[in-house]
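Regression test case RT-17, inverse folding.

Input:
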């Protein structure tokens, strides 16, 4: 497991969030070759053994690329597989507990409104996410926050803010116009027939627009 000091999240802006899938290793490898620079395994339905098996596989792959590997919601599994960090939502394990289990790991926190943004400022996290800016099947039952909240979070948070919700190449320019510099991608990559090409297209647009 790397330390949170080993990765500068302000310089990372193409964050893949993926569930377990039959071709997980080849899929993630293709996106990393295409330019993804953070990987999170987000699996809400599989049992712990299955998540550990797949997380261990991704730990090896991401390490080969020098890319941080994040486990969603499960600091115990992150500890078990040597992941670089954990991402938690508002209803998941508290950040303070994550820190007790993984004091030097990367910790990310989801936020959806100004109150949660203000609360995040008091927590020991390395980055936050803001959104989803539009309703998305990956967050069933949650309405979109709108681009205004993501803009507010990006302006006020001293930590990197990764926007979520329908991130795709044609949306990057508008998001950048609102001060957004970091992007979480799910369906644009997970539903692509050519994940390398999709990641490369998105990476190229981000680099062109943001200039990282």
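Golden output:
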């Amino acid at each position: 497991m790397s330390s949170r000091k080993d990765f500068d999240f302000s310089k990372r802006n193409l964050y893949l969030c993926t569930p377990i899938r039959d071709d997980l290793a080849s899929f993630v490898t293709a996106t990393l070759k295409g330019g993804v620079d953070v990987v999170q395994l987000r699996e809400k339905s599989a049992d712990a053994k299955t998540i550990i098996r797949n997380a261990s596989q991704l730990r090896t792959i991401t390490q080969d690329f020098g890319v941080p590997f994040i486990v969603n919601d499960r600091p115990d599994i992150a500890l078990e597989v040597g992941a670089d960090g954990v991402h938690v939502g508002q209803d998941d394990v508290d950040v303070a507990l994550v820190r007790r289990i993984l004091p030097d790991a990367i910790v990310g926190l989801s936020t959806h409104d100004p109150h949660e943004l203000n609360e995040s400022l008091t927590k020991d996290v390395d980055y936050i996410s803001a959104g989803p800016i539009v309703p998305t099947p990956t967050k069933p039952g949650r309405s979109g926050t709108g681009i205004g909240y993501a803009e507010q979070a990006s302006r006020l948070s001293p930590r990197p803010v990764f926007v979520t919700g329908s991130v795709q190449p044609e949306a990057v320019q508008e998001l950048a116009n609102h001060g957004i510099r970091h992007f979480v991608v799910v369906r644009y990559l997970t539903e692509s027939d050519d994940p390398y090409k999709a990641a490369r297209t998105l990476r190229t647009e981000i680099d062109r627009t943001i200039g990282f």
